[in-house]
């Protein structure tokens, strides 16, 4: 089923989420072929304290820096 068309019937789950058929694009890189759930990549769920998020957002807005979460 093409992604930009309106469905005129109620397809079964197997039809709607079946793998796409057709030739692969030989010019796509491995990164371009990776599974994405948004245009720029893959977003994972994160568990963040609302207080800590607001604290860092306000610090960044006021002072222009925030804590690096990777350290």
Shape category: elongated
Q: Please mark out the parts with pLDDT under 50 across 5 or more consecutive residues, or reply none.
A: none
The tally of beta strands, per DSSP, is 0
Helical content (DSSP H or I, runs of 4+):
25-40%
Total number of helical segments?
3
Structural category = mainly alpha
Distance between the termini: 44 Å
Characterize the biggest β-sheet: none
Q: How many structural units, i.e. domains?
A: 1
What is the gyration radius calculated from CA atoms?
Answer: 20 Å
What proportion of the residues form beta strands (DSSP E)?
under 5%
Run of helices and strands: HHH
Arithmetic mean of pLDDT: 86
Task: Pick out its properties.
71 residues; mainly alpha; 3 helices; 31% helix; 0% strand; Pre-mRNA-processing factor 17-like; mRNA binding; PRPF17
Explain how this protein is built.
This protein is mostly helical and 71 residues long. It has one domain (13-63). It is 31% helix and 0% strand. It has 3 helices and no strands. It is elongated, with a radius of gyration of 20 Å. The mean pLDDT is 86.
